[in-house]
Amino acid sequence: MTDTHDDWHVLAAAWRSGPAAPPPLLADVKRRDRASRRRLALIYASEVLITLGTLGVSVELVRYHFGVVWALWMLLAWTLVAAAWIMAVWQVRGARLPPTGATEAFLTAAVRRCQRRARTARVVLLVVLIQLATLAVTALARYLEAPGLFTGARFLAWAAAAGGLVVAYVGWVLWVRRRVLRELAQLEALRAELDEGGA
Amino acid sequence: MSESAEQRFARLMGEYGTALARLAAGYEADPHEREDLVQDIALAVWMALPRFRGDCSERTFVYRIAHNRGLTHRARRRSAPEPLAPDGRLADPGPDPEAEVAARLRHERLALAVRGLPGIHRAVVMLTLEGLSNREVAEVLGTTENNVAVRLTRARKLLRAAMGSLGADQ
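Above: the input entities. Below: the structure tokens describing the complete assembly.
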């Protein structure tokens, strides 16, 4: 018992003899805080811009082409945008991490947050799938109307650029989802370890 | 006269800054990432200060934030083998006096062993090594004192085994 106790004291002394570090400076922390707020503001602004852009482009397309297919396309675009916003707001509820909470509460919130991020990635993939299907139907309708539009270097360049964008976006979402799932597995393991009750 | 948020933050960092660096060393081996983690913890403390109403001690408040950040930092990392220096020895401690070099190597070796422990055991060990009582550790983790005591016994065994194998490697 005494050996173990002494041993522990030696370890504690070794632990505390770690290199002295200068305390974090308030100026650096405030700079980091500003950068993080700026990043968040940029993300929110870009989300609003994408929403307004989608709505504006869909209205313009319907005004320009004026057909049932385009009206349906606009309706679908608006529905997807509304669904995305509703989901985003719903996801945020109760998912704030309480950094000052005990580890148990913190891990529970962190797991919930990760689960929601994983679900978001799944929904995003579904939305991309719906958009691709819509695009295919629209393109088919246009092809039947005017097959000449679907030939030539300009069309091929457009199709290649759009296809590349879709592939890059889907690849990025899958990469994010993989990272989130890995984080979720780690957090769940930690929570299980804490829940073990020391048994 | 009461302390301003700035003064309070500066005082907390003065009191716990070195401890935060040690705790970060228990979660991250890479010095740059470790520095980043310390800054992250400091930012979280700064942001949480206005909401701190004294429902726990300042020490518990700071350590809770540090551990919660450390755990999420660790969870986000791709799990990779602990990076030792290329020749299989611990990194060069720099041109310190002999005793300091030896102390630093001991600390590095211990930090390496601590990083190898399972998450919650790691937290229990680090907090105990920092001098927190079982009751305080339980407060930080949100568990019971008894639970902490059981974990600490198990963690000590794991730590001793890890230290033994590290010693054998050198």
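Note for the figure: The first helix of chain B runs from residue 5 to 27.
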